[in-house]
Amino acid sequence: MTTVSEAPAAARTRTRGVAKLLSLRTAAPETVVPQQDAFETYYRDRYRDVAKAEEIFRGSGVRTRHMAWDPRTAYADGYPPIKPRMAAWEENVLAMSRSTVGGILGAAGDGGADRLTDRIGSFVMASCTGYAGPTPDILLAKEFGLRGDLRRTFIGHMGCNAAFNVLKTAFDALAARPDELVLAGSAEVCSVHHRPEFTAEQAVVNALFGDAGAMTLLAADDGGATPGPVFLGTHTETHPETTHAMSWHIEDQAFRMTLSPYVPFYIGESIGPFVERLIAPHGLDVGDVRHWGIHPGGPKIIDFVGEKLDLTPTQLAPSRAVLADHGNCSSATILLILDRILREERPAPGEYGVLMAFGPGLTMESALVRF
Questions:
Q1: Which residues are catalytic?
Q2: pTM of the model
Q3: DSSP bridge pairs for 156
Q4: pLDDT of amino acid 7
Q5: Hey, which bits of the chain come out as E strands?
Q6: What is the CATH superfamily name and number for domain 228-370?
């Protein structure tokens, strides 16, 4: 096993042309919903015929969630049709993204924001919890005065792994136009899709999902001349034999998610070879990776991945903390975890990190980061 300092020279130095993370901002609705209070005052009565409902909510790993629609009030008098749900999605996606994009541009200081907007050539954004046209990226580009020839990509309905599709599209844009910058991120409003369907499966869904947004500013790396995390590579696998395990469909009253209890087992069976195919081309093995961001589709996914990869509680802590403080926020979650790693773990220059998420398909996405 090699240490970071002993990793092959090519793996340490070959970074020109990959993407560098210049900035990362996150946002969430102001309303914070404590899990236990929400269960006692709202969910307990709704799920009174589900024997394991309390066990599901207590075992979710969630302490609080930020929710645009607090279930204790939003659904107290019934379940709205799809139109007001989509209006709330658009309003809150714009609000969160206004905060994250504004934070990135505002950090540049006086005059710096104008220089940034001149250099941002592409804007890539994802959300799977709603639809509207013009899409939010168009409205945000107008509001922030981004270039008239801005290349825009809006990615919808890809689920919890969509942030990786956002990043990969951004990486391609930087490879084609390395002198430009790319805004890339997502925003999800899961709380507008609570349904009058009271089953154990839907209890799991309603115990886990929250709302959040995140945005990155990316540049083509300059070969290490300036510090900052770089994305060295990505790896994707889809296991179509498990397409039944996770789904996301539009129905008359709201979007409906299905989530098989076997998803953690499917992921656990595949995770070792999956991670190896990401990191081995860079001369690394699991022991060389210090920082891990595991999308918390639920606490069992963190448990299974940690066990299969022999990770420590410290390495699993960022994923568990985001699950506890925010719940599963679909595509935005992995960027919340990356933000937590950067702010709280403060990786040393040269340390490696692996990010991963899982979505319908069953699709497994990952990225290798060098801090």
A1: 160
A2: 0.93
A3: 127
A4: 40
A5: 19-27, 32-34, 64-66, 120-127, 151-156, 181-189, 211-220, 230-238, 246-250, 255-259, 289-294, 352-359, 363-370
A6: Thiolase/Chalcone synthase (3.40.47.10)
